Each structure stands twice: as C-alpha cells, then as structure tokens.
Amino acid sequence: MKCVHLQVVSDEVVERVDAARNRALLLNSAAALIAERGVDCVSIDAVAAKAGVGKGTVFRRFGSRSGLMHALLNRFEEELQEGFLFGPAPLGPGAPPSERIVAFGVARLEFIRDHGDILREAESSVGTRYASSYSVYVMHVAMLLRQAQVHGDYRLLADSLLASLDASLVLYQKRDLQIPLIRIVENWRTFVLHLTSE
C-alpha cells in the first residue's frame, strides 16, 4: 500500500504568498494608473482603490509613494539589466565593447522613453539616484571602457557618459527642446564611438 504524505502549509507560507500577490497587484495597479493618468497624478489612495485594498496595505508593502515608485521602477529595470548582462549581442556579451556601450545607451534611452516619468521621480532624490541600479550601470560601462582600452579614470568616465542618459535631461531634450529621440540616440552613438576610438 502506497503511503500518502500530507504537507501542512504554515500560516507563514500563506502570508508570504498573500504578500507576494498583493505586491504584484499593487505594482500592476500603479503601472496601469501611470499609463492612464501620468505619474504625477497617481496617489497612494488611487493605487489602493484600483487594487481593491486598503491604503494601509500600500504603506505596509512600500512605506511611501516614493517606495512604491522605486519598486515599480526596479521591476522595469530588471529587464534592462537582464538584457545587458545575459541577452544577445550587441547589448549582451559577444560584441566589441564600444558596440555594447552604444547598445546600452540606446536601450537606456528607449527605457526613458517608456518609463521616463517614473525615472525622473526616482532620480529627484539624490539619496536614491545613485542607489543599486545606478551602481550596476556604472560598473557595466566602466568595465566596457576598460575592455575598450580607453585612457582615463574608468569610474569617472562612466559617470560622465551616464550623465547624458539622465532621465530629467533626456525628457527636457525631448519635451521642451523638441529633439527627436532618434537624434539623441545618434548623438549618443557619436559620443561613445569618439571616446572609444582615441
């Protein structure tokens, strides 16, 4: 006779599953509201109402509106990081370093096109602007500059390059100066190829 083992699911496991489900629900609700109204018109109250939960649930999961925006941004940034760490060339491994830097900038500019308002809000706090995702980007670009044998301080050069990919700057160029994204992309390509060919 075959023995059947029953696994007892603990309250803690159920709570973790509920927490993960609520987190995903809140992030999806926030993303939908931002797409409908724009990031500046999205409040904690609106996200909670759309998700069908109490306002306290949002605060427990994210701490504040800023925490919610950072969590949403992290979800989007994971896809970009996955692309340049493990994706196909030229963004991912396998292409010459200068081509990878160009591809990284193009991907970042497209990311700003799609999620720029959330990025702008996240970058408005200096304490969070240079947090984990920026550190990953700077290390990635510095590594590629080293591989391209560019002369200079790789960390400072990477900071200088990434400054031109600042969300507030790119949004200003696109919206206020009416510069098309394709022109910003071409400028990035010229900038990188000039730097890496010296």
Automatic annotation (TrEMBL):
Signal sequence, start to end: none
Query: Which residues does the UniProt record annotate as the domain HTH tetR-type?
Result: 20-80
Which PROSITE patterns does UniProt cross-reference here?
Answer: HTH_TETR_2
UniProt xrefs under InterPro entries = Homeodomain-like_sf, HTH-type_TetR-like_transc_reg, HTH_TetR
Q: Which UniProt keywords apply?
A: DNA-binding
Coiled-coil zones: none
Entry keyword annotation includes DNA-binding:
yes
PANTHER family linked: HTH-TYPE TRANSCRIPTIONAL REGULATOR RUTR, POSSIBLE TRANSCRIPTIONAL REGULATORY PROTEIN (PROBABLY TETR-FAMILY)
Name the record gives this protein: Helix-turn-helix domain-containing protein
Q: Could you tell me which species this protein originates from?
A: Rhodococcoides yunnanense
